[in-house]
Fold each of these.
Amino acid sequence: MRHRMNYSLSLFYRGSFRELLLLLFAENLIIALSAVIMGIFLLKTLGEPFNIPDKRERKFFLLTILLNTLLTYFGFVFWSVGIITIKLRFNPGIITDFIFLVLIMDVVTWLIHYILHTKPFFEKIHYLSHANKNLNPASLFVVHPIETLMFGFSWLLVLTLFTFNIYAIISYLVFNITLGVISNLGINHITTRNSFSKIFISPAFRLEHHKSGNTNFGYHTKIWDNVFRTLSASYTNFAKNTL
């Protein structure tokens, strides 16, 4: 098994283990900083200020990046030894793979988020995400380490159970980060009603979750909050009409 892993890794990376970790750390750091910069740009466009994260938030922001680096390494190794299989060719199946990824990760993240709010042990972990009532784009990465690992390993589990196209995976990751930034803008700007805002979460949807603490658990869509009746009654119509 070790020989096979080393052989597979050598096909794509010939540096040392330390250099690989530094490369993956740089990748995750760039992704996180790009997400925050995108959020700052959106806030500036809307005429809203960006609340600079305090020392505690910056500490957990960096810790999340470090853990994401470790999770990325695990994913790379799992793929190298054949635990995770990925289709590499560009084909029409990318679209269906992307849709399925959004749907499966939507229910997985909803379930984890629900557990984090309803089970005593996990409530003590998730408090960190609600410590700062003023949401900002950096809040996406200010989470407890155990919570980061829960979401990270659930992602690796999905990739282990199903085979997806690499372009669908990349598209989902871009979609996930973009929607995460938008939902954490911490604003209530109302926009024109559209199909996207009826299905997918919004800044108002996330703000109401942080206000109530027991509604609006969705990370991508409002589907499962509707199905399990956890959608905030006071914000049902309002959230559907927001960015």
Amino acid sequence: MSHLAFAQSWNDRIDIYQEGGAKIAGYCFGPELPKPCFHPLATPEGHVITGYQMSDHVWHRGLWFTIKYINQSNFWEERPPFGVQVTRSQPKCELIDPRTVRLEHELQWTAEATGAVLDERRTVSFGVQADGVRRIDWVSSLVALQDLVLDRTPYTTWGGYGGLAFRAARRVHGTSCLLPDGQSVNAIIGQPHPWSMVRGIVDGRPDAKISIGMIDHPGNPRSPQPWYCKTGNSYDLMNAAFLFHEPMNVARGEKLEFRYRVMYRDGWWEADEFARLADEFRGSKSERRN
């Protein structure tokens, strides 16, 4: 397995490459982007699985983290006026071992109606395992700058979403969600689980398959978190929706920390296989102490 390298554009992105030149991931954050995100994310066989600025929801971009409403300002949908995540200092990026890149990004969440509401320190490690599986460890540490109400659109036929989210590219199709009990379903609407997964087939050859799973850390607020996931009809969204059932009050100065592991690969994981991987993240003594 070749080593990783990265190239940083000071103003808008960090691109991650495998040794030899193939680009396998990008972190986008520039001044024109309301929310930083990961795009593209490519599997070992080169299938780009992230959708970016989708025509049905232009604010859906790959893998991103935000909250729908903060003190009634909308930080999810980019319909004026809306909240934005502003870069406070340029992201720091380093190779921490030959297969892992770590970036640190300081952000401030602000909206016209509320002013600054959150300071965020985001630490994300992108790694390639020996078996080729891609792994993203995402930590968002949020500090409230005023008394806050974090909220969502209550679910009717849609709603409840907010938090870490993934939107698949349209080249990914024939999708379904895999649950920890082994069920394959088209949607997960508010049920709590330690992890969720989207599996599908991808353009390129008839038997090309991909899997992407998102793991909720047991130390997260409201863990095990409810999920809002929908698949099919070119709309494949996976979201760890911690506010699905009710809003959350956060006092000024209070800190919230969210930790997730995202893993993806060519081929399909089965539930028992992915459960073992999830337990490595959720169950070790070192993870539980932090």
